[in-house]
Design brief:
Radius of gyration: 19 Å
Number of helices: 13
Shape: globular
Number of strands: 9
Strand content: 5-15%
Largest sheet: 5 strands, parallel
Structural class: alpha/beta
Order of helices and strands: HEHEHEHEHEHEHEHEHHEHHH
Strand order of the largest sheet: 7-6-5-8-9
């Protein structure tokens, strides 16, 4: 029997394949109950604090709805309100909040911040996203893959784009842990951290998974099950990076040719938001500056039957609910 009560949820490197599977299955169970209108408010009377140094639509909504469904209250601390690391140290913040809340979520910058919060907190701390890892997204992605294919082991997943940060790192770890086959398909300049690659290769050797790095789009996406991408420039990065990224990563855009190469059974995933049209301020600015109408994914793929991005987005809530329920 898997027991995660009192555990922090900081990165999937800290969890066994059995524990990860438990969270995915619990998310599926909680989703089924939600659809059937069965209440799961077993944590009534508890409260959680949500620290957001980086804003977010999906992560905030997912945590707030999940907490409410579980019967909990929650306090949202936005970047203008939280004094973490500014007027109050991370250690002090952790101890203050742990005295008032049963759980603390952190979404922001370095992984060392959420790790330090957890070190000084006597209640579970959950990583809502750091520069290095995005573990709640991984449970949602595994749930989405399992719902579609019926299993996760042996699934071939290719990540296209900038593979140096949280999404590619987390997907590589997840695939290694779960016996899946991960490919980072990008120019070598954007390959993941070599130490993490070696760590994941060692894990994959024990689970039947594999890790591949390639700059060859045709080879990297041939007959894969999942094609995954993310925005080319993350929140908080300077505007001048756009030109460099668009130049470097345009060959790794997910388009119709890529999906055809992957095969008709392949699905497209994206953690969102996505620049697939000009209906955003940044999208419109990029069109004006560089004459492009789409970036990491074409609108044709984003809106296609192969795209599961909105099922994936909904699954963020069910997965976060599972993480909170399991650890509290």
């Amino acid at each position: 029997m898997v027991d995660l009560k009192g555990r922090d949820f900081l990165k999937l490197l800290d969890f066994t394949p059995e524990e990860i599977t438990y969270l995915v299955d619990l998310a599926a169970e909680l989703k089924d109950k939600k659809k059937k209108g069965i209440p799961v408010d077993t944590l009534r009377g508890k409260n959680v604090a949500l620290i957001f140094e980086k804003t977010s639509t999906r992560t905030r909504c997912a945590f707030e709805v999940a907490a409410h469904d579980l019967g909990m209250g929650c306090t949202y601390l936005d970047p203008t309100v939280s004094q973490i690391g500014k007027k109050e140290s991370i250690a002090d913040t952790a101890r203050v909040l742990a005295g008032m809340y049963e759980g603390i979520e952190y979404r922001g910058y370095g992984q060392e911040i959420v790790e330090e919060l957890a070190k000084y907190s006597k209640v579970p701390v959950w990583n809502g996203l750091t520069n290095e890892f995005h573990p709640t997204q991984m449970i949602a992605d595994l749930l989405t893959i399992k719902e579609h294919f019926g299993h996760v082991d042996g699934i071939r997943l290719t990540y296209m784009g900038d593979a140096r940060y949280n999404m590619a790192n987390s997907l590589m770890v997840t695939c290694a842990k779960m016996g899946m086959h991960f490919t980072a398909c990008t120019t070598p300049k954007y390959f993941p951290n070599p130490e993490l690659v070696e760590q994941c290769k060692a894990i994959a050797a024990t689970t039947g998974g594999s890790i591949t790095l390639t700059d060859d789009v045709e080879a990297g996406t041939k007959n894969v099950d999942v094609v995954y991408t993310d925005v080319w420039v993350s929140m908080g990065e300077p505007d001048e990076i756009w030109e460099e990224r668009i130049h470097d990563l345009s060959p790794y855009q997910v388009n119709k040719k890529v999906m055809e190469n992957a095969g008709e059974k392949a699905v497209f995933l994206h953690c969102l938001p996505a620049f697939h049209d000009l209906k955003t301020k940044i999208g419109a600015q990029m069109a004006e500056r560089f004459g492009i109408t789409e970036m990491e994914v074409t609108d044709e793929v984003f809106e296609s039957a192969q795209s599961l991005v909105f099922e994936e987005a909904e699954n963020r809530m069910h997965s976060i609910k599972a993480v909170m329920a399991a650890t509290l």
